[in-house]
Amino acid sequence: MDSANLDSTFRVTLVPDRKIALVTSFKLHKLSAYSYVDSNNLELHSSVADSTLMLNPFGVSYDNTRDMAVVHAHDGNSLTTIDLSDTSSMTILGSVSSSTYLDRTMNSCLDEANAIAYTHGADSDSFAAVSYSDRANPAVLGGISGDSTYMNGAFDVACNLDNSIVYVIAAYSNSIAVINVADPSSPSRVGGIIDGTNLDNPHGIVYEASGDLLFVACQGTDALTVLSVADDASSPVVLGSVSSTSYMDQAIYVASFPAAGFVFVTGDASDSVCVVDVSDPSTPTVVEGLVDSTYMDGAYGIAWDPAAKLLFVTGYKSDSLAVMSVAGTVEKYIAPSPPPSLSLAPTPSPTSWTYGK
Fold first, then answer.
1. In terms of pTM, does the model score above 0.90?
2. Which H helix or E strand runs over 253?
3. Beta sheet of 285-291, edge-to-edge order
4. CB atoms within 10 A of CB 48
5. 37 burial level (CB within 10 Å; 0-12, 13-18, 19+)
6. Is the CB of residue 79 less than 8 Å from the CB of residue 106?
7. What whole-number distance in Å separates Cα of residue 173 and Cα of residue 357?
8. pLDDT digits over 202-233, tens only?
């Protein structure tokens, strides 16, 4: 653990070509960059902090085209842009705030081609399109605010840019709002689904283009729900759901591994990560999981490097970042004792787990 740089770590995102993990620290108003060139020994490159522009940062997104990060200041109602060209000396570029569209913003998905962050406001029941084409002066292009029917407690977003669609999940309305962003200055809700059974308190969402699928982590039912948007991008249809109190107790966020037909889900209350087989999306099945209250106490954010076969999970209660291999290539453990190995059939190599900070 690194108490000087990791305190209430909610989200992590990766810069895979340079093997950098970007981690937010809520209580320190800070973003930290760790190298995982040696996944057994995470190396801090630098941190950048600002209690005004990054007041209680939550989520972070990475723009590979511009080599920059977008950080969400949960209690500053703002998005802040950060230069990552030199991760040993990160610098803040600019910021934009809005109590109308960004009230308790947490996450975004990026349209890198047009330099737009699509995001939300949990307390403003809102959606926003934020331009960062001028990195020093990001600006809200347009948005929808006060939609308590489909975006009550908007919590996460996922982009389906080929169809000019963004999906917004809302924790309190048990829903997914479908937003058309063909004109980002005037987004409109064109569809959605409200389902208190299969979308009970949804917190995390991923869109998987290869199957036109949505994977949603539902805190209320400790479950992963799979939905299809193949027939109509604006009309999600529930295909199946699976729950596990052992590995998805208060399910939070999701990462997908489409090549293997797996989805990874964090469990906040179970201090765990769960592996779900979604090769048949109508019958998702829990394959395996790992519980570790030392390094994943309050398991929350999750990120996946498919090339390195490494999974990253934040523990916001343990102020930590856990690194796990799912390729069977990591033999050294940084932990009090080696955790149990995992076998993800049909993956030929056994999965091992290694820990970072």
1. yes
2. strand 251-257
3. 251-257, 262-267, 272-277, 285-291
4. 21
5. exposed
6. no
7. 36
8. 999 999 999 999 999 999 999 999 999 999 99
